[in-house]
TrEMBL record:
Cellular localization per UniProt: Membrane
Positions of region (Disordered): 362-411
SMART domains: AAA
Keyword vocabulary terms for this entry: ATP-binding, Membrane, Nucleotide-binding, Signal, Transmembrane, Transmembrane helix, Transport
Keyword hit for Heme: no
Protein name (record): ABC transporter-like protein
MF-aspect GO terms: ABC-type transporter activity; ATP binding; ATP hydrolysis activity
Length: 1093
């Protein structure tokens, strides 16, 4: 038994709507009287009783055909609203010999036809099943295709009867035009709007009835061709559909499309073509590729401008800011110079002769004017100091006057004149040393608003600090500085550690062992030793960054057993690698770090002052506006990049600064410049410790303390640098002449140089004995050797226990799991904040991140232009190749669209989190908000989410020209891009860049294949619901299928049923895509803060 499709029930009320409520006598009046006046009355009477027949089976339609009927009334009228033209019904009344009503199919016959039209699997049947009128026993002439018979008169006839099929054996005639008579049913059904159902004509050469391709019964020469014989999907009954290039205002009329219009298959009216398009007569579709070409050219020009000019916006802004900054620095220098001269004049005035000194020091031009007045008798004479140069001659005077008129006085000259005119003026002087009145009148940082005022304030303070450093200050000046309320003090951090030992979990290997000592505030400590001595491990242990290790001993912060993480906001850690944003300038890198890590209560002007002070101290003024640079794009030098790496921690004004090999790769002068900057930090009470490799002697002497580690993480020396040579000399280890002390000591610890009277393994024992520290039990043999004077004592060790391969593998797996567990615990651990610094909240950090990401994207305008250009080409190619197929509603083109947009947008979104993983991990470990970082990236990517569908559709829509609107396609693409962008975040964060790109390519293809598999399999259907591609493709097809009505109803229902789609699920598809995007972002954020690889 072949399966029945439920959507066939829809056509029961369709046909019943055309059946009259009236008795057969209503249609018989015209046949009996042949009175023309009865014809319109009979026709209108029949049609008036048809108008409300849809209510009979509306419940059944809504229950069984809801998936393909969105609005019953609208779809009904779109297919069977013949009120505007009833000519086909009138003509049929004329030709019918008797009552027309008796020729029409009843509800039961209509159900029977549409219930047998399709078999399961989508194959169209050529005839219906045998019934009481047409079977193996009975086969009346009306059972042939295109023919129908009257219902027998000896039975009760009711068109609305859905259970009883009347017998039809009387007066068999050809089917009327505008109707179709299915083979094996012997009754008539009206053709829907958009179809063309004329009477067939016999083709004598082929013996078939054109255009319906059915044959007349053999051996019956009087049996002529009738009308149409079926109405099904377009693949099975394309001859019924109004052909492309023509339109059918009624089911019996076909008109060729006129020039300037186009007519698609199955349309009832011609549609006007757009301007600038060519539409000749008999055009099936307008060619709007010209619009696509114009849009392509316009978009290409826009992208070309973006590629070449995106960075110019920032460059112009930076130049304007640089001019303001240079003017402020010049103003500060001139102010400082004028203040020094004014102070010198005041000091001279106290000693006498102040008039001459003032005149000689500040106003040489005024002295000249006074001399000229004396010479020309224009004023009283003034005694000229003999040390002044002689007055110029007459000719020199005139030339000097003309030059003075042409050259305007400088700012410094104006300032000096204002001082002469008003000695009590405070104009421009906000940096006087010891002048309390001017300090009180100077503006504070919070009172400054404009960029110029902020820079003047910052450079003024820097010039003040320079003056304090370069002059021998008086006792009153020192007291004034000590009592200055503007000087901010940093909290002090002192770290003491005792018997600090780090052991690898599961492997019982010591990375650090029995280290005892203290790091003091205001001192610069150097951690040195041979490779593998645990220098970086030691600093990581102090800052709480060591994972996968078992830590024993004690670490006290300011004498308290507090976690070092409690002071995370005031601790700076400079990694060995130069982890700096290469697509930002030097100043932008430093400014971002200062904004996010300095106190939120600190005024903007004071933050600028901190940044400018760091730039000045690190010698980065010349490259402050230069990009740091990446591998692809050259930037500043390696030494400058290293200093920027250190400056990122200096601008947050730390109390504890840890540096991992900051001088590696620097020359001697750059290293000294860096260390001088760090020593200035130490003068403010900062506790500084750094790892070094063989510094020069000059650099070595600039340190206060030295921590010398031996192999195995043991301490060989910990104390002042000044006493290190004295300590080793007491053991008989003297530094040879012209040999750098740290180089000689490291060579001894490395084993290159043999120490006299002992082995290098005994040096840590010497240190323990020297300080009275306990010696580990496994090292007592080394201590015994020292006590007996035996220098050849060898170290004894426990015999290693051999493990099987499986045992070693299990230990490695266990170790990796414990390391991952420690990392996760460290990420999620919460500690009390004891730093007394309130950094900006998530909202302000989000704003800072947003500004930074926008700058980075503007500088990457070339990449954006390339991405959009690829989308343009993809849209043009796919729109041209994937022609719209009315049978499948363009599913092929939309499948290509889903795959292409998913792939291209994922590849682009990978760059959001793949390229700066190291920078993020450094910032997050410093306490900067991960949520602000994630939201800022996602917010900026919303620009791509909005603009990329427009770019793609601007090509695809105009080259493919589907029936759905541009707006519907854009909304679906918008949700699709939002979804795949979130999925790309997961790949970028969790996987390495190469693997992330591979998965970004595979996922769209694989998921699309799963979503398009046969829906008969419950398993495939279940997994298909989890594929975002299924919902995107369904949304596209629903939007397009909704535009097909009239004669396309059966095709629409068949296609939706085959695909398993529902016409009412368009909003659901969009919601699922958006929800998938949101869930993907939540998962990506969880991975971001959990798996910091």
């Amino acid at each position: 038994m072949r399966g029945v499709r439920p959507h066939a029930l829809f056509f029961v009320p369709v046909v019943l709507s055309l059946l009259p409520f009236a008795c057969s006598i209503d249609g018989d009046d015209y046949f009996q009287t042949k009175n023309p006046t009865y014809l319109p009355l009979v026709t209108n009477l029949i049609y008036s009783r048809l108008s409300n027949i849809s209510a009979v089976l509306s419940n059944d339609i809504n229950q069984n055909l809801q998936f393909c009927i969105k609005n019953l009334k609208t779809d009904w009228n779109g297919a069977f609203d013949f009120a505007h033209n009833l000519d086909f019904l009138t003509n049929c009344v004329k030709k019918t010999k008797g009552d027309l009503t008796l020729r029409l199919c009843t509800a039961a016959e209509i159900k029977f036809y549409f219930g047998n039209l399709f078999v399961k699997g989508g194959d169209t049947a050529s005839y219906v099943k045998p019934n009481k009128n047409c079977n193996l026993t009975t086969w009346v002439p009306g059972c042939e295709p295109g023919w129908g018979c009257f219902a027998d008169s000896n039975q009760r006839f009711d068109l609305k009867n859905g259970t009883y099929m009347p017998s039809r054996t009387q007066n068999c005639q050809p089917c009327c035009e505008g109707f179709f008579c299915p083979r094996g049913l012997a009754c008539m059904i009206p053709c829907p709007l958009g179809s063309y159902c004329p009477l067939a004509k016999l083709n004598t050469s082929t013996g078939v009835c054109d255009p319906y391709n059915y044959q007349i019964p053999p051996g019956q020469p009087n049996h002529t061709c009738g009308a149409a014989d079926s109405w099904a999907d377009v693949a099975s009954s394309s001859e019924v559909f109004c052909t492309s290039g023509s339109y059918c205002p009624s089911t019996v009329t076909k008109v060729t499309c006129s020039s300037g219009h186009y007519c698609r298959t199955g349309t009832t009216a011609q549609l006007p073509c757009f301007k600038l398009t060519t539409c000749n007569p008999n055009t099936s579709n307008q060619n709007i590729r010209g619009y696509g070409v114009m849009l392509f050219v316009a978009m290409f020009l826009v992208l070309l401008i973006i590629r070449n000019c995106s960075d110019q916006v920032l460059s112009t802004r930076e130049r304007r800011q640089a001019k303001s900054r240079e003017a402020a620095a010049r103003h500060a220098r001139e102010t400082a110079q004028a203040r020094e001269r004014w102070q010198a004049a005041k000091n001279i005035a106290k000693k006498g002769g102040w008039q001459q000194q003032l005149s000689r020091t500040f106003s040489r031009a005024k002295s000249k004017r006074q001399e000229q007045r004396s010479f020309f008798g224009l004023g009283r004479s003034v005694k000229v100091d003999s040390q002044l140069p002689p007055a110029p001659k007459e000719s020199e005077k005139s030339s000097t006057d003309s030059k003075a008129k042409k050259k305007e006085p400088s700012n410094l000259t104006k300032m000096l004149h204002s001082l002469e005119d008003n000695p009590k003026s405070n104009e421009g002087f906000n940096l006087n040393i010891g002048d309390k009145n001017i300090k009180k009148q100077a503006p504070r940082g919070k009172q400054l608003h404009t960029q110029s005022q902020i820079f003047k304030y910052a450079y003024g303070q820097i010039e003040k600090e320079k003056a304090q450093q370069n002059k021998n200050m008086t006792f009153s000046g020192i007291i004034s500085m000590a009592t200055d309320n503007d000087i901010r003090t940093r909290p002090v951090i002192e770290i003491s550690f005792k018997d600090l030992t780090l052991t690898l979990r599961g492997k019982h290997k010591h990375l650090l062992r029995c280290v005892t000592g203290k790091l003091m505030p205001g001192r610069v400590s150097a951690v040195m030793g041979p490779s593998g001595a645990g220098k970086t491990t030691f600093l990581s242990a102090l800052t709480g960054k060591a994972v996968g290790c078992h830590v024993t001993g004690s670490i006290l912060v300011n004498g308290k057993n507090d976690s070092i993480q409690c002071y995370k906001k005031i601790i700076g850690f400079v990694p060995q690698d130069d982890i700096v944003h290469g697509n930002l300038t030097v100043e932008e890198n430093l400014r971002f770090s200062a904004r996010c890590r300095l106190s939120a209560d600190l005024a903007k002007a004071d933050k600028v002052l901190v940044i400018e002070r760091v730039i000045e101290s690190l010698g980065l003024q010349a490259v402050r506006d230069s990009l740091v640079g990446t591998v692809e794009k050259r930037g500043i030098s390696g030494g400058q990049r290293k200093r920027v790496n250190v400056g990122l921690e200096m601008v947050m004004e730390p109390s504890l600064l840890i540096l991992d090999e900051p001088t590696t790769g620097l020359d001697s002068s750059s290293s000294q410049l860096l260390l001088r900057a760090l020593r200035r930090e130490a003068l403010e009470g900062v506790n500084i410790a750094m790892v070094l490799h063989q510094p020069s002697y000059t650099l070595f002497k600039m340190f206060d303390d030295l921590i010398l580690l031996a192999k195995g993480g043991l301490t060989a020396y910990l104390g002042p640098v000044k006493k290190v040579e004295e300590y080793f000399a007491g053991m008989g280890i003297n530094v040879p002449e012209r040999v750098n002390p740290p180089d000689h000591l490291i060579d001894i610890l490395e084993g290159i140089v043999q120490p006299p009277g002992m082995t290098r393994e005994q040096l840590p024992i010497r240190w323990m004995l020297h300080n009275g520290y306990p010696i580990p039990a496994d090292m007592l043999d080394l201590a015994d050797g020292l006590s007996t004077g035996n220098t050849n004592t060898s170290t004894s060790s426990d015999p290693e226990v051999q493990q099987s391969f499986a045992g070693e593998l299990w230990q490695d797996v266990k170790f990796n799991v414990e390391v991952k567990r420690d990392m996760i615990q460290q990420d999620y651990s919460k500690s009390k904040d004891l730093s007394n610094r309130r950094t900006p909240g998530i909202g302000r950090q989000f704003r800072y991140y947003l500004g930074r990401v926008c700058k980075q994207r503007l500088r990457e305008g070339e990449l954006l232009a390339v991405d959009l250009m690829i989308l343009l080409l993809a849209g043009a190619c796919l729109g041209t190749l994937a022609k719209v197929n009315d049978e499948t509603f363009g599913s092929l083109g939309y499948t290509y669209t889903v795959i292409a947009m998913s792939l291209l947008c994922k590849i682009t979104a990978l760059r959001s989190f793949s390229l700066d993983k190291l920078e993020y991990r450094r910032e997050s470990s410093a306490g900067i908000s991960s949520l602000a970082y994630f939201l800022s990236k996602d917010t900026v990517d919303h620009f791509n989410t909005i603009i990329k569908p427009v770019v793609y559709l601007s090509m695809f829509y105009f080259f493919n020209n589907p029936r759905s609107t541009f707006q519907d396609n854009y909304i679906v693409l918008l949700c699709l891009v939002y979804c795949v962008t979130g999925m790309a975040y997961i790949l970028a964060i969790f996987l390495a860049p190469s693997l992330a790109q591979l998965w970004a390519v595979l996922l769209p293809v694989v998921l699309t294949l799963i979503a398009n598999q046969d829906k008969d399999s419950a398993i495939v259907k279940y997994f298909g619901n989890f594929c975002y591609t299924k919902w995107a493709l369904e949304a596209f097809l629903i939007a397009n299928a909704e535009r097909y009505s009239g004669v396309w109803l059966i095709t629409r229902c068949d296609s939706l049923l085959e695909s398993g789609y529902n016409l009412h699920d368009w909003n659901l598809c969009l919601i699922i895509l958006v929800v998938n995007g949101i869930v993907a972002r939540i998962v990506a954020y969880f991975l971001l803060i959990t798996f910091k690889k």
